[in-house]
Write a structure and sequence with these properties.
two-stranded antiparallel ribbon; single chain; alpha+beta; globular
C-alpha cells in the first residue's frame, strides 16, 4: 500500500511540474510577425537552463528564450555561452552594453538579456539577400527584446 501511495505521489508531482514548468504562451507577436510554432528545445540532460523557440509559418523569423533553472547558471554566463555558440556557427558580432548583433549571410541575430523575465533572448531574422543592419530597427528590436512580456 505504501508503494502505491509513493507511485501516486510521484505521478502527481510529475504532472504538476510539467504543467507549471511550461508557463510560456503558445504564440508570440514580435517585430510585426506572428510566431506561432512553439518548440521546447530543452534537453533532459541539461539541468542548467531551458530553451523555447517560436517561429513564424515561413521560418524566416525566430525568437529563442533561454531561462536559467534556479541558480544553476547566471544570465551573464549564459550570455557568454550563447555568444560563443553563435560565433562557432559563423555569426560575426558587434555591440556593446549587453546588446549583441550578429550577421551571417542572410541572417541577422539580436541577442540580449530580458531582465523582467530573467532570460536571455535572441531574435533571428532571415532575408532573401545578404542581411543589412538598419540602426533605427536595431534600437526598436533591442527595446522590444529587453521588455518582452510572456
Amino acid at each position: 500500500m505504501n508503494a502505491l501511495k509513493l507511485i501516486l505521489a510521484a505521478v502527481i508531482i510529475a504532472v504538476i511540474y510539467f504543467v507549471l514548468s511550461d508557463n510560456l504562451p503558445d504564440e508570440v507577436v514580435f517585430n510585426g510577425h506572428l510566431l506561432d510554432v512553439k518548440e521546447d528545445k530543452s534537453t533532459a540532460n541539461n539541468n542548467q537552463f531551458e530553451i523555447f523557440t517560436y517561429t513564424d509559418q515561413s521560418g524566416l523569423n525566430l525568437i529563442m528564450i533561454i531561462t536559467p533553472k534556479r541558480d544553476a547558471i547566471t544570465l551573464s554566463a549564459l550570455e557568454q555561452t550563447y555568444l560563443e555558440r553563435f560565433k562557432q556557427k559563423g555569426f560575426k558580432f558587434t555591440g556593446t552594453g549587453g546588446n549583441h548583433v550578429g550577421i551571417k549571410d542572410k541572417n541577422g541575430l539580436y541577442l540580449t538579456i530580458a531582465p523582467d523575465i530573467n532570460a536571455l533572448v535572441a531574435y533571428i531574422e532571415r532575408t532573401s539577400g545578404n542581411y543589412i543592419l538598419k540602426p533605427e530597427k536595431m534600437v526598436e528590436i533591442f527595446s522590444d527584446l529587453k521588455n518582452i512580456k510572456i
